[in-house]
TrEMBL record:
Organism whose genome encodes this protein: Bacillus benzoevorans
Main location class: cytoplasm
Enzyme Commission number(s) from the entry: 6.1.1.22
Span of domain Aminoacyl-transfer RNA synthetases class-II family profile: 131-431
Protein name in UniProt: Asparagine--tRNA ligase
This protein's UniProt keywords: Aminoacyl-tRNA synthetase, ATP-binding, Cytoplasm, Ligase, Nucleotide-binding, Protein biosynthesis
Length: 431
């Protein structure tokens, strides 16, 4: 007997196979039963025709409840109508564990109910598709950076410093010292870039932000590349090549998942490098033209502003050269204009907002000291970071891509809570 998975059934057309699976759904009449089976690798329909099988098997199939686990034996058949192209003509069922009263039924449930049952909700077809796309983005990320000469480096999660501002920190005790959960691995990645040239990290980051929007998580995952000898313009080309690469990888490797989610793939097919660039100054002007009369030079953009700017483009758009006063201490001021920094936010199309924040970094020690002081940061806490500017300092740049916002955009799901297995939100730490 061939033991296989739903993803592999295509290798065994017209052969008998055994699968471990769960019953996602069931339909039956007096003559035929249809089982929607799932095994984690995919979904397949099992068919049991009463007249072709022993009566006992047909009765077992009819009595199966949602989420009952079983081993199923059957013949793999080609089927044009199936999303995966195959179905299973079932001739044997071995129940492993009978599920009683599974709480998530095919009917509609409210979001809070589903969030309370996230540990079970993950089994649904839609959540399965989103998790597979998330996995593909992670896989393609490693592939892209490994193929382009980057070294993966893991920055610490328990830290003593606050790269993105002191108001959004989760503090904890580190024995007798104060520590924080990492908001960004960037400062450590700068050290790593001076040792290894081109590096990238992928890990969880934490923001004690009291934001309750469809774009904000308290715990999210970030990909943070950092590159020695790379200035502002080259940093943007790496970003557009990377983002185009992950979108094209998802299109190539997740067609079933995109279809399950009803994603308009023609929009994703257009995501190729290069991406458009506009300056912050032009963005302000564009917003005035669109009727956002209140926003002034020096103000930060909110979600409605980002959406309004992005709607003019089919591709993600870089907004560059933000006011120095809006951005963190480590960003390099424009040499021609000290009131703006050499930075860019990458705004996804279709209203998904900022997916990347990046910049060239200050590499002159004296300038960095004065920038730290302007931000009222303790120089002593940044001693090691300043030392990177004392021994062969070089221009360098990097960026951070928020994984969940990127998954939301590529999958076409409205809210980031569906893009991470167990979301940590304001007021939600369960399950
Ligand atoms: O713009 P941010 O704050 O940039 C940094 O942390 C830099 N240190 C990165 C770097 O240059 N190495 O965050 C980067 C990205 C944002 O563009 C967004 O996609 C995501 O991280 N992000 C969030 N995603 C979900 N929930 C939140 N609360 C997020 N905050 C930022
Ligand atoms: Mg940002």
């Amino acid at each position: 007997m061939i033991k296989t998975t739903i993803a592999e059934v295509h290798k065994y057309v017209d052969q008998e196979v055994k699968l471990g699976a769960w019953v996602a759904n069931k339909r039956s009449s007096g003559k035929i039963a249809f089982l929607q089976l799932r095994d984690g690798t995919g979904f397949i329909q099992g068919v049991i025709v009463k007249s072709d099988v022993p009566e006992e098997l047909f009765q077992t199939a009819k009595s199966l409840t949602q989420e009952t686990s079983l081993f199923v034996i059957g013949i793999v058949q080609k089927d044009e109508r199936s999303p995966i192209g195959y179905e299973l003509l079932v001739n044997g069922i071995e129940v492993i564990h009978r599920a009683v009263d599974y709480p998530i039924t095919p009917k509609e449930h409210g979001t809070e109910f589903l969030m309370d049952h996230r540990h079970l909700w993950l089994r649904s077809r839609r959540q399965h598709a989103v998790m597979k796309i998330r996995n593909e983005i992670i896989r393609a990320t490693y592939e892209f950076f490994n193929d382009n000469g980057f070294v993966k480096v893991d920055p610490p999660i328990l830290t003593g410093s606050a790269p993105e501002g002191t108001t959004e920190l989760f503090a904890t005790k580190y024995f007798d010292e104060d520590a924080y959960l990492s908001q960004s691995g960037q400062l450590y990645m700068e050290a790593a870039a001076m040792a290894l040239g081109r590096v990238f990290s992928f890990g969880p980051t934490f923001r004690a932000e009291k934001s309750k929007t469809r774009r904000h998580l308290i715990e999210f995952w970030m990909i943070e590349p950092e590159m020695a000898f790379v200035e502002f313009a080259e940093n943007l080309t790496v970003q557009e090549d990377y983002v185009a690469y992950i979108v094209q990888s998802v299109l190539k490797n997740c067609p079933i998942e995109l279809k399950t989610l009803g994603r308009d793939t023609t929009k994703l097919e257009k995501i190729t490098a290069p991406f458009p660039r506009i300056t912050y100054d032009d963005a302000i002007e564009c917003l005035h033209e669109k009727g956002f009369n209140d926003i002034q030079w020096g103000d930060d953009f909110g979600a409605p502003h980002e959406t309004a700017i992005a709607e003019d483009y089919e591709k993600p758009v870089f907004i560059t050269h933000f006011p120095t006063s809006l951005k963190p201490f480590y960003m390099q001021p424009d040499p021609n204009r000290a009131d703006v920094v050499l930075c860019a936010d990458l705004i996804a199309p279709e209203g998904y907002g900022e997916i990347i924040g990046g910049s060239e970094r200050v590499y002159d020690e004296e300038l960095l000291k004065s920038r730290l002081q302007e931000h009222h940061l303790e120089l002593s806490a940044y001693k090691w970071y300043l030392e990177l500017r004392q021994y062969g300092s070089v221009p360098h740049s990097g960026f951070g891509l928020g994984l969940e916002r990127t998954v939301a955009w590529i999958s076409g799901v409205e809210h980031v809570r569906e893009t991470i297995p167990f979301p940590r939100l304001l007021n939600r730490l369960y399950p």
